[in-house]
Write a structure and sequence with these properties.
The chain is α/β, with parallel strands linked by helices. 43% of the residues lie in helices and 19% in strands. Helix 1 packs across helix 7.
């Protein structure tokens, strides 16, 4: 890897997204960060050498194209794409509005579609690259009151699998990481204040595993990767 290689991360919030930006910047990448919150992006730009933030709603193909134009101009084509942006809403399928399911689908699944279609050709031309997607157990099962979310994550995982089967033989590694845990964030701590520290998964630990998967030797690539705290029931 050279200093000039670019890692593109979507959904750069205060938890997993920021941890990913820090880990890949530490590893020598120039990090392109996508989010809708410009203040958060600006703070990380000040913190991380070589990181650049771009305001983008990944559900909007025009905004994705505009952001990628700017990234390629400023930093170069991404060698790694991490689709971490997520949108969710919960409630009975009898209660939620149809647009809620569609809005979630646009971020979780179509966002991956738009981004991957844009970055994959340069990866194919280079004969190398990685596209990683952060998911959760909703990609594997439907539960009551998850009808507005689980179908979008299941579709996201299947899209990633189809991409992996197509891109793998061309040298591009696609992997899906199921995070079966409550991520350690202030609002989650407040909500689950009776839970012990071991109940939560640390964003930095998630980022470390994504770093590992992104740099696997190509004779031993993973696709389905599951992460959970050691005490998690599953």
């Amino acid at each position: 890897m050279t200093q000039q290689e670019v890692c593109l991360i979507t959904g750069v919030g205060p938890g997993t997204g920021a941890a990913l930006a820090r880990r890949f910047a530490k590893g020598g990448y120039r990090v392109a960060m996508l989010a809708r919150n410009e203040g958060r992006l600006a703070a990380l730009e000040r913190e991380l050498v070589g990181a650049c933030g771009y305001r983008c709603d990944v559900s909007d193909p025009a905004q994705v194209e505009g952001a990628l134009d700017a990234i390629e101009r400023d930093l170069g084509p991404p060698a790694i794409l991490i689709h971490n942006a997520v949108r969710g809403a919960f409630g009975s399928f009898l209660e939620i509005e149809a647009r809620v399911l569609n809005d979630n689908f646009q971020v979780n699944t179509m966002g991956l579609f738009y981004l991957a279609r844009r970055v994959a050709p340069s990866m194919i031309a280079a004969g190398r690259g990685a596209i990683l997607v952060t998911g959760n157990t909703s990609a594997l099962r439907g539960r009551a009151r998850f009808a507005g979310f689980a179908p979008t994550k299941a579709a996201q995982r299947i899209l990633a699998e189809a991409m992996a089967r197509e891109l793998g033989p061309k040298g591009v590694h696609v992997a899906y990481l199921v995070i079966d845990a409550v991520i350690d964030l202030p609002w989650a701590r407040e909500r689950d204040k009776d839970k012990p520290d071991d109940y939560f998964i640390k964003p930095a630990a998630i980022a470390e595993e994504l770093w590992h998967v992104a740099h696997q030797e190509r004779s031993a690539w993973s696709f389905n990767v599951e992460l959970r705290p050691y005490g998690e029931t599953w």
